[in-house]
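Bumping my old thread because nobody answered last time. Still need a sequence for this structure:
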């Protein structure tokens, strides 16, 4: 049982920035691959970014979003800059053992999500 709790979502204007946080329970955080996914109303949940030893970002967010982690705090972050209206979605934190993955099905643990709304 791993619990993930997201925070930091909110309303921001296009071009603005937001930093999401995901706090994880347990003592094995450093061994997990962590990821952020997002889901807009009526759309499929999609991969955003993941981190283990390395990072990987969805093409549409490269140069704008940066995933990072602080193992001492059992926390993963998503720094979002130059936000666009199409970034509006519920953002979910996810965790799995082993390598990073862009597949929803590969992640065992999920947070409840945090709403990000970007206005134009």
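Sorry it took so long. Here it is:
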């Amino acid at each position: 049982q791993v619990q993930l709790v997201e925070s930091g979502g909110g309303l921001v204007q296009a071009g603005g920035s937001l930093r999401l946080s995901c706090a994880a329970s347990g003592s094995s955080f450093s061994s997990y691959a962590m990821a952020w996914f997002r889901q807009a109303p009526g759309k499929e949940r999609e991969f955003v970014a993941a981190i283990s030893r390395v990072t990987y970002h969805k093409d549409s967010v490269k140069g704008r979003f940066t995933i990072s982690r602080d193992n001492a705090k059992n926390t993963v972050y998503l720094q979002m800059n130059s936000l666009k209206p199409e970034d509006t979605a519920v953002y979910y934190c996810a965790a799995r053992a082993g390598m990073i993955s862009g597949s929803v099905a590969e992640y065992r643990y999920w947070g409840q999500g945090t709403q990000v709304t970007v206005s134009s």
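The radius of gyration is 13 Å. Let me know if any region looks off to you.
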